[in-house]
Amino acid sequence: MPWCAACDRFLSPSTVRSDGSCPTCGRRVDVRRAGASNATSPTTEQPPVPVPWHLKLLLAALAVYLAYRAFQGVAWVITHV
Q1: Domain ranges across the chain
Q2: Could you read off the pLDDT tens digit of each residue along the chain, which spans 81 residues?
Q3: What is this structure's pTM?
Q4: Among the listed residues 24, 27, 37, 29, the one whose alpha carbon sits nearest the alpha carbon of residue 13
Q5: Which residues, in sequence order, are CB contacts of 41 under 8 Å at separation 6+?
């Protein structure tokens, strides 16, 4: 988490300028503050984390269940109208 000592606040990585300076005061920020030993500089981008297969399976099962319940609801409305 980037830390600006002059402003005495934490910054989000997206708000730090490309040269590693604070957007408010313009001084260089410390990215190793608060125990972040594996902090990356704001200019390096990490690849996105892939969606786990079990989450995809859960979403597919949820879609099938909701489709089945929608079918039951439509059938119930047709029989009771």
Answers
A1: 1-45, 47-81
A2: 778 888 888 887 888 888 888 888 888 887 764 444 444 555 577 888 899 999 999 999 999 999 999 999 999 999 998
A3: 0.44
A4: 29
A5: 20, 31
